[in-house]
Amino acid sequence: MERCTKALIYRDNLKYNFDQIRRHIAPGVRICAAVKADGYGHGAVTAAEAAVESGAEFLAVASAEEGAELREAGIKARILLLSLCTPDEFQALADFDITPLVFSREYIDGFAKAARTRFGRTGQKTPVHLAVDTGMGRIGCLPQEAGAEAAAIRDSGTLELEGMCTHFAVSDGVSPDDRSYTARQFDLFLEAVENVRRAGMNPGIRHCANSAVIMTEPRMHLDMVRPGIIIYGYYPGDVTEQYLRGTGADFPLRPVMALETRVLAVRKFRAGDSVSYGRTWSCGRDTEIAVLPVGYADGILRRFSPGMQVTINGRNYPVRGRICMDQCMVELGNGSGVRPLDRAVIFGPAMSGALRTAEDLAEAGGTISYEVLTSVSRRVTRTVV
Ligand SMILES: *Cc1c(COP(=O)(O)O)cnc(C)c1O
């Protein structure tokens, strides 16, 4: 039994997007593929396998549980934990060989203890990466504290500093203000690296480049890049395909996910009849309305209507009225020829028959493609094609 509302994952497009990344970074630069949030909604294991086949050495997750899922699927690549976890998850990190970003003494000491439980007798060192807050305002030590934090890692006895990283706040903006803020963050990161060197330690793998920086700032690639959204075929923020073409960059991407369903009823409505909860929309004419079995519990957020369009047999039709939990309605007009069981595509790459992308849907809902993709809920089956 399979529900007709499903997400198709075009595996070749994942590989295509990785090829584009590889083409734009120097040969020695490593890739850490962000597969957090279930691979931005695409399936973490599918995304991770494609990443590893494309030469990614590191995978990035947001929780110990996400890392454990990859290990349980047999994935051997290095795994970096980008967010913080509670001390009761430290042992799982050590046991599943998940490498945390660290920056505070208590966190370093707590994780060192878990690492000692696992490796204490062998004397094997457990790698960690030192996070530096250069202006993102999220996690990390201040650049001037980096030397002392690196020393705390060394002095723990069981941990070793394998890398240093920072994260940008406005790298997907293209205004002069945003660009200079990013450049300033980068300079502060290099200062933090120098502080660690001056304190007599090797900073290891230096990494800061997210998708936007990979595409716009080759000098910031350093030793490793951390692509996320571009793996899945979307451009971050204002760094659009059009913007990149204007700068002479050539960075084609292919959306990886298509969200599809089927028309389950085609009904005739009279002018003035209202559609859905709240009666926010009424037919301006006699028209056919299609009922689709997809709603906000599948990730088609209520705020996507009005504005959302669905592609049926190569034509776009507007969603009308409020999106319900499990259903939504589409205005077909008259003579569309649309029949029950016809395939309806909500977004996806052109090869899926979609005329809309997750970016178009994001615009309709005042959000970003990241949120559209990660909102596709668990009950939507992912089928790798
Ligand atoms: C999610 C994330 C990335 C990837 O970001 P994109 O904008 O999707 O490329 C990189 N680094 C960190 C720390 C992240 O949290």
Which terms summarize this structure?
alpha/beta; binds pyridoxal-5'-phosphate; elongated; 385 residues; nine-stranded mixed beta sheet; 12 helices; eight-stranded parallel beta barrel
Structural class by helix and strand composition = alpha/beta
The radius of gyration computed from the alpha-carbon positions, rounded to a whole number of angstroms, is 24 Å
Mind describing the biggest β-sheet? 9 strands, mixed
Helical fraction equals: 25-40%
In short:
The chain is of the alpha/beta class and 385 residues long.
Tell me what the structure shows:
By secondary structure, the chain is an alpha/beta fold. The chain contains 12 helices and 19 strands. Strands 11-14-17-16-15-18-10-1-19 form a 9-stranded mixed beta sheet. The model has no long low-confidence stretch (mean pLDDT 97). Pyridoxal-5'-phosphate (PLP) binds next to loops. Residues 34, 82, 167, 210-211, 226-229, 236 line the site of pyridoxal-5'-phosphate (PLP).
